[in-house]
Predict the 3D structure of the following.
Amino acid sequence: MTGHFRYTSPQPPKSATGVVADVYAQLATDFGIERASTFVVLSASPPLLTATWALVRESLLAGHVSRTDKEVVAAGVSLANRCPFCVVAHTVLLHATGDHRLAETIGSGGLPADPGHRELLAWGKDMSTPPPFPAGHAPEQIGTALAFHFINRIVSSLLTEDMLPGGAQRYRLVRSAAGRSLARTVRRELRPGTSLALLETEGAEPAWAAGTPVGTAFGVLRSAAHLGAGLLSDEDAAFVRESVAGWDGITPLPLSGAELPDRAERPGARLALLAARAPYRITDEDVAAWRVPPFTDHCLVHLIAFGAICAVERIEANLPTHSKELA
């Protein structure tokens, strides 16, 4: 199976079994895209796949907050992270909500006409600013934003930039038509918590999630993603954590110097750090330098996920104090 996948060869969804097949079934029903490569690329690790899907479902898809508002936030996150694949995805999903002008304005890098949407887009780009929504919206909005900080890094590291075959997403009519095909699914009301039955482990829930299913999913994803640290030496894992902890969450990683480990000497630390701070700069050479036997697709996905979750936690730590205490 090729297509969107740069460095892994996931099994075709039609051959999936067990919990992976269960995720694909929920994707088809609740997301409208059974074989979404954003999730298929994680299938080498069922714990990462199930937790990522659960976080997206419980934050972006379910709940009472406007889907349009959450898509605006997710688009802001994706723009900030320079993830063209995800920017197009949210443009298409905004088309699916019926707000076609908003979709194209955001997708082209413009500012929405509605002041509320402008504020949500700006907050998605910089979550260290005060949240432009009431406390009751925090679990879904913060969960959505952090979910896509994680997913942007997975996508930029492991997928191509084209969301649609042949780069067809370049055309407005194609984006609009793709959105219209998902309109019925996007506008459905979903019962919160349905995805949690797929989770097989537990994790510490954040206060901002206020005891909702969003917090359960986030805690499990955090635990699963941190397992990737075991692929590095203690020294390299600590280096990645310390580098990300000292980062402001915005400034790009320098192209050279002590902050970026040498590809030949510390390829794992380099790859994980790039996944955290500049996933769009990961090259074929970076992956090849680290991925030698016995490392597999499973290992690569987990190493990238480790870098991604370190970044997510750093951005979470940047939330204004009152955001953390909304619960």
